[in-house]
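Our preliminary data section would be incomplete without showing what the modeling component actually yields. Below, a chain of 1015 amino acids is followed by its predicted structure, encoded as tokens that our downstream tools consume directly.
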Amino acid sequence: MIPQLLRLENFLSYGSEPVQVEFSGLGCACLSGGNGAGKSALLEAMTWALWGKARGGNIEADRLINASARASGGRMRVVLEFICNGDLYKVERWFQKKGKSANTTLTLWVYNSSKKSYQLWSEGVRQTQRLLLELLGLDYETFITTSFLLQGQADRFHRASDSEKKEILGRILGLSLYDRLAETAREEARLTEGQLEALEGERSSLRAALRDEGGVLRELEEVQGKVQALEGELSDKREKLDKLGGELAQLGEKLGKLRALREEREKLADELSALGNQEQAAKRELSSLKELLARSDDIRSAAKEQASLQAEAERWGKLLAEDSTLTGKITALEKEIAQRERGLLSERATLREEVSALKGELKSISSLLAEEKGLRAKLAEGEGLAEEMVKQEELAEKAKELEGMAEALRRELSALRGRKQAELASQRERLSKLEALSGEFSKMQEESAQLETLFREREGKEGALSNIGRKTTENERELASCGQGLTAIAHRLSALGELSTTARGADAVCPLCRRELDRASREEVVAHLADEEEALRKEEALLQEKEKELLDEGGRLSELQSHLKEEIEELKLRTKPLSALLWRMEQARRELAHREEHEAEADKLSRHLAQGKGLDPKLEERLEDALQEVSLLGYDPKRHLQMQGELSAIRALGERLREIEDAGVRQAEVEARMEELEGKLVVLERALDERSYARELLQRRERTAERRRSLGYDRRAHNQVEVELERLAGAQERLIELTLAKEREENLGSMLSQLAEQSASRRERFSHLEGELSTYEEYSKRWEQAKERQKQLKEELGALETEKAQLDRQEGALKERLSALNENRKRADQLRVKVGELRERDRLARLLAEACGRRGVQARMIETVLDELERSANAILATLTGGSLHLRLITQELTKGGRKREVLRVVVSQGGSRRPFELFSGGEAFRISFALRLAISRLLVGGNGESPPFLVIDEGFGTQDAEGIEAMIETIGKVSADFALILVITHLEELKSRFERVIEVERDGGGFSRVRVGG
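Predicted structure:
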């Protein structure tokens, strides 16, 4: 990957105005600028655009976006144009956050040379990221470990664990293909193992099932005998049931006649009961009619009296209606008279209140007019005070401006003091942590020693696990051999069976010379074939026994292997913190090395804060100037405040004077209104006294009352008539009943005679039916007994049929079992062959997985390039150190038990003796790491077979002396031909002149980074 152009906005220190950097044609260039100017941010933007990662890992985009853009909801955007595999691509990634919601997009274009424009290739974060990984052939970790020497991480490869180093080299060499092959082979072995386990289980089940064949045959014969016996018993039961059915049919006809007779008897009984009820009702009604006819004179007298009272009640009702109408009219007239009176009284009260208010207002106006002369004198005195107040306002404005400036300066100085105090607190906290870290460092050393012991124990168990794996493989080969032998024996036994069958026939021939055999020869051949079959059976039994032993041993090995794997996994978990602990120890060592610098810085800050001055001389001087200018103004705030009070009082007097002037005009209006209201009150009082407002209504009320008195309505007499009518209620109805009673009496006598005749006829028929029913009752008992016998026979027949159905099902199931056993015998033969094939397939898959695994082809390929990597790194190191340092890549070491184990360690020698990497100075350590990383980057050039890649060296010269810087520049010049673009990032001004092309990065007035390409 070779960068050509980079555009970014709102990324780290870069603002919303887009910044563009051209890299094409730069070759070897210097990226220069002060600390914090934004140099590294340009390279971080490239990795974020390509992998979505920056600052050495998965840092959140929310922490990369510029603070101002984050606050305003702006977007962070990076566009990178780059060459890969000879083609030009453009990738764009942007991020935006508004409130709690965040959004990221990723788009990839490819350049179409014929159309001379970019064409969209992919969009969407997941899909496009996957395409970028395939296109680049490198993930983020491999890139920053090989081609991107990040600031403070030059020894990243050196600090990696053995497995991480091998993984990095594997990615460079493209060994992921072998990983995929090994995983595919392991998956195939797992599938085959599962299939074998299933087939072996099935074979075992089939063998167990075939042992039951004899028992099934015996059980089938027994069931068939029971079925035959049941069939005879069933025939006898069915014959008896048919005979009983005919007898029941004859009895059923007799029972039909019996039911008809019973129904007729019930009907006659109901009719007799109804006739009796009718006769009783007619007799009761006749008795009631005779009582009514005996009271005929009383009933007629009451009816006549009721008619007379009803006429009297109607006359009183008419008088009551007219009296109520007149009473309502009188009430309405009285309400109207009272309403008019209340209206006049309310109007009088309102006029009196208004007159009283006007009198009060006239009194207030008189008081105001008395103040007018004194107020005008005081207002004349206040005109001079107003002119003086204008001058005080101008001085107050100027003083306020100066004091605001002074307050701002004070806040700025206070904020500066706060920042310095926070910085001092941070330094003291850091010193406290360093103090604690110093005590923890020895504990870390002890812990690392314990973890290394566990690590060596883990390697020993991994070796034992490897031996078990080899033993398992040998065991599986023997199992496959047994399976093949058993398959061959099965084929031979099948062939012998066919030969034996042929040899027993009358027309049998010799299997060798094809000559017809006589009886003695046939017997001899059959005996020979039987002996051979017996020998094969014995050999088959031995192989099956051996197969069982191998399977048992395989189970034990599998159990031991599983136990070892669990122990190794536990040790892996326990030793997992080792690499992190070593890294923490290195970090602690580096932090402790700068302890004295932090203490000096803390002392310096403490002195400045204790003195209270000197934090910012310019700000302090500006504050003193502002305070002095305020004192020279001559502004008196107390006098200003007093004048404001006096002017406020004078303004109030002016308002009072205007109020008095308005009162003079108002006085005449009030006096005229009072005269008008007093005239209205006199008229109202006269009308109320004389009641002239309701003369007509009073006359109408008197006339209506006179008419009501002339009616002569008597409420008591009316009520007495109503009471008498209540007493005679129903007299007219009883007179009508009396008229109809005589005619009804004659009809009831005739009706009673007819009912007596009908009852006598039905009693005679009922007696005849009772005699006929006694004859048919015997048939009902016989039918019940026959029905009970039929039910019993049906139950017995059903039980027999159920038993036979069960036996039929049992017979069918047994026949199916025999058929299934025959199929099982065929299936067992097929499985024997299939198991042999699967064992061979499993063996080949395991061999392929082992060959393509990390300890197979991959390890051999890594060993092949390690010599080249070591030579290249030492050639670079010789230039950097004048030949004083030499490194070696060790791939094996002896354990305490004397066994060899695979490692990948970097060992550095000086003057023929080894020295731990931690004991080298910062400058030497960087040169060692730089040489190794540069050699890895060159290995990447040769490993992928494509155009030379891109190399970044981020801040490595600060640890070097003048001689070291010269050596590193010389080395960069020598390897520049291997790379299309080399960027050296530094803040040292003296290095800029050593490069033809320089990219300058600096901050503008707003604090945002800007880029300029020169040279």
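The chain has 21 helices and 15 strands. The first helix runs from residue 39 to 51. Preliminary results of this kind motivate Aim 1 of the renewal.
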